[in-house]
């Protein structure tokens, strides 16, 4: 599903943020990345999401080498990924419905299909009936569920989540993780960055531990 | 198995369907955005219109002057003003002499009375003349040269000859200033072209700047859309339509303004033309000209938007995050 081959990364003007990182996430797994702040967790996810390019090594997504792929191909690869962020990244001038419908619109779905899939996604995260609301009128947990609905709307095989519960209280965090596990059981692969040891040990199939840019 | 063709057709249909849907969505959502900030939209559109009015008006004035000069050119008429003491009989001799000239196609004698009547009719100074005891106007002979002499140089030599005849006070020939006018018109046309380019660039900058502000406003949205797999084209599309609407509405408004100017000027020009033959009428742009300028305005708006968005997307990729 996703494979890092001896990946190294340095940002312009930074030292080596990642060094010789190799791992593979198999289909249907729920994998966590942990490590101290600054260990490189977000960097791994940004590389997997093709937001950044590796300085060394290569990355394989669904069997395809993507480390040096042309910029024109990236949008189409990204449509097969679901991205979830710590700060939700919702658009505040659009309704919940329009937020969740956005990736479907981008992928070129027709209006009926968008309507159907958007409602289904909102239903799955327990937000049926919230379509006309605006993100600011929602609680943090509800906002993150909109973010999750947006990520699953196109039914991607792989979801990348960077500290998805970083801004939520422990109970809500568990609720979100349980939701992830439910999706995982119907076949979606997850790669989640988190430094919440409790959550990691409770939900992880596998843990990738980073320490100052190296796998341990 | 013959599923290959229908499959390809179905794919093409789907692709066209998606394309049309996305275009339609961008077209109307961008119009909606303009509607949501009506004052800013109005000001921008007015600025664009005003920048475009000047070259348009200039173009029309030049076109009209051109048409007028062409129109006047068909009148290769020479007027011989006779000396005041020349009488009807002496004038008749000159008339016959002119008729015998192989350069002359037609001659017409305007005697003092006819001249006075014409002067009254056209000049508006009739009352002044009434106050004079005598008719002060000379006899005038109008000469229309033959086609072969309708040439400034040849005509100039004729005029020079007639000027020396006894009894001729002076010979007036209007083509010289017409030639000069045409020279000036050519120059002015080049100036108008330059003005058009300069003001067109100004309109480009206005649209570009407005689109830049809009991008600034929607930075976050663009960022999220790119993360969700939007292509550059998808991101660019609503802005292109924004440019489209600015060009379309600004260009349309510019034409309306120019038309207003035209309506305001027409009565004066017609009155002026009436003093001569009344044969010339102020002309407005043809539908074709309107369409071409309008199309240019739309293209200008879209080009400005394209440049600004493309530059922004480029800078997103090439600046250290
Ligand atoms: N755009 C950037 N330019 C330069 N250095 C960067 C950039 N992004 C991250 N870094 C550096 O890379 C290192 C790893 O950052 P990263 O965000 O991957 O850590 P993290 O494990 O996600 O930390 P946290 O738990 O605090 O989110 C840090 O030292 C950080 O300063
Ligand atoms: Mg991080």
List the defining traits of the structure above.
heterodimer, A: alpha/beta, Rossmann fold, 4-stranded antiparallel β-sheet, 7 helices, globular, B: 321 residues, alpha+beta, Alpha-Beta Plaits, 2 domains, 10 helices, 4 strands, elongated, binds adenosine-5'-triphosphate, binds magnesium ion
Characterize this entry briefly.
The complex is a heterodimer of chains A (216) and B (321). Helices cover 35% and strands 25% of the residues of chain A. Chain A is an alpha/beta fold and 216 residues long.
Count of helix runs of chain A: 7
The major pleated sheet of chain B works out as:
4 strands, antiparallel
Pattern of helices and strands of chain B? HHEHEHHEHEHHHH
Mean pLDDT of chain A: 94
Low-confidence runs of chain A: none
Overview of the structural elements:
The complex is a heterodimer of chains A (216) and B (321). Chain A is of the alpha/beta class and 216 residues long. Chain A folds into two domains: 1-80 and 157-216, Rossmann fold; 90-154, no CATH class. Helix content of chain A is 35%, strand content 25%. Chain A is built from seven helices and ten strands. Chain A has helices at 41-48, 74-78, 96-107, 111-124, 140-152, 170-185, 197-203; strands at residues 2-10, 16-25, 30-35, 56-61, 64-65, 81-84, 158-162, 189-193, 206-211, 214-215. The longest helix of chain A is centred in the C-terminal third of the chain and has 16 residues, at 170-185. Chain B has 321 residues and is α+β, with helices and mostly antiparallel strands. Chain B has two domains: 27-71 and 180-316, no CATH class; 78-173, Alpha-Beta Plaits (2-Layer Sandwich). Chain B is built from ten helices and four strands. Chain B has helices at residues 4-36, 38-73, 88-100, 112-123, 126-130, 152-163, 175-217, 219-227, 232-275, 287-318; strands spanning 78-82, 104-110, 140-145, 168-173. A four-stranded antiparallel beta sheet of chain B has the order 2-3-1-4. In chain B, α1 packs across α9, α2 (38-73) runs antiparallel to α7 (175-217) and α7 (175-217) runs antiparallel to α9. The interface between A and B is medium-sized, with 27 and 20 residues.
């Amino acid at each position: 599903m996703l494979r890092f081959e001896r990946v190294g990364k340095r940002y312009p003007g930074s030292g080596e943020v990642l060094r010789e990182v190799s791992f593979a996430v198999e289909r249907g797994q729920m994998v966590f990345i942990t490590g101290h702040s600054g260990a490189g967790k977000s960097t791994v996810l940004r590389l997997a999401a093709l937001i950044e390019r590796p300085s060394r090594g290569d990355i394989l997504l669904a069997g395809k080498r993507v480390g040096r792929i042309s910029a024109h191909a990236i949008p189409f690869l990204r449509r097969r990924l679901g991205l979830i962020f710590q700060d939700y990244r919702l658009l505040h001038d659009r309704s919940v419905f329009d937020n969740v419908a956005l990736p479907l619109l981008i992928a070129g779905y027709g209006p009926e299909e968008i309507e159907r899939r958007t409602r289904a996604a909102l239903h799955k995260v327990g937000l049926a009936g919230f379509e006309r609301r605006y993100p600011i009128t929602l609680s943090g947990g509800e906002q993150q569920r909109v973010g999750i609905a947006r990520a699953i709307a196109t039914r991607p095989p792989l979801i990348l989540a960077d500290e998805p519960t970083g801004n939520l209280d422990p109970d809500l965090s568990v609720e979100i993780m349980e939701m992830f596990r439910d999706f995982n059981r119907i076949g979606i692969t997850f790669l989640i960055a988190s430094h919440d040891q409790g959550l990691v040990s409770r939900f992880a199939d596998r843990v990738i531990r980073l320490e100052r840019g190296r796998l341990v | 198995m013959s599923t290959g063709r229908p499959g390809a057709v179905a794919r093409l249909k789907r692709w066209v369907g998606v394309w049309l849907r996305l275009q339609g969505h961008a077209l109307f959502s961008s119009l909606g955005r303009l509607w949501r900030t009506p004052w800013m939209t109005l000001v921008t559109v007015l600025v664009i219109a005003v920048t475009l009015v000047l070259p348009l008006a200039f173009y029309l004035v030049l076109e009209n002057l051109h048409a007028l000069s062409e129109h006047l050119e068909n009148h290769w008429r020479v007027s011989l003003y006779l000396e005041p003491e020349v009488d009807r009989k002496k004038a008749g001799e000159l008339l016959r002499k002119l008729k015998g000239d192989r350069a002359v196609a037609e001659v017409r004698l305007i005697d003092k009375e006819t001249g006075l009547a014409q002067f009254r009719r056209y000049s508006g100074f009739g009352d002044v003349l009434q106050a004079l005891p005598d008719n002060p106007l000379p006899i005038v002979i109008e000469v229309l040269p033959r086609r072969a002499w309708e040439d400034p140089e040849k005509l100039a030599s004729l005029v020079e000859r007639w000027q020396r005849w006894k009894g001729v006070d002076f010979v007036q020939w209007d083509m010289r200033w017409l030639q000069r006018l045409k020279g000036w018109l050519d120059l002015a046309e080049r100036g108008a072209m330059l003005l058009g380019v300069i003001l067109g660039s100004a309109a480009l900058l206005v649209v570009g700047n407005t689109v830049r502000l809009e991008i600034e406003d929607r930075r976050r949205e663009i960022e999220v859309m790119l993360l969700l797999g939007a292509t550059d084209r998808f991101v660019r599309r609503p802005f292109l339509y924004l440019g489209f609407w600015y060009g379309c509405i600004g260009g349309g408004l510019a034409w309306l303004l120019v038309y207003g100017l035209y309506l305001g000027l027409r009565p004066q020009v017609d009155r002026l033309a009436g003093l001569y033959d009344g044969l010339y009428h102020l002309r407005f742009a043809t539908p074709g000209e309107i369409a071409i300028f309008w199309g240019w305005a739309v293209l200008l708006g879209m080009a400005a938007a394209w440049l600004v968005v493309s530059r922004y997307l480029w800078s997103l990729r090439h600046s250290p995050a």
